[in-house]
Design brief:
The chain has 124 residues and is mainly β. Helix content is 0%, strand content 41%.
Length: 124
Amino acid sequence: MKKFNITVNGQSYEVEVEELAAEGSAPVAAKPAPAAPKAAPKKKAPAKKAAPVSAGSVTAPMPGTINDVKVSDGQSVSKGDVLVILEAMKMENEIKAPADGTVESVEVTKGASVNTGDVLVNLK
């Protein structure tokens, strides 16, 4: 087994990899890897103040750009009504109401960039 440190999106992971011998050849003896110094965690930029997630929050299922907002504050919606059009990977995705309710607040505007889990609309 060989040990490696791999960094993905600023997060460091220690992994072990087993080297397999080709068919018909002798096993390869692995040399122990020198211990790599642990890097100090990088400081993240302060996050923008996110809307509080409540039981009636409709969140972004993926990162993308808001192409259109189909509802406004105080509007009644039925289960399945389109609330927001989210463009991700050059495809338009209809974000629909999970249940009947009233729009308490719309947390995004047309053209805004959102990440997975960002609150789009709060329903009550």
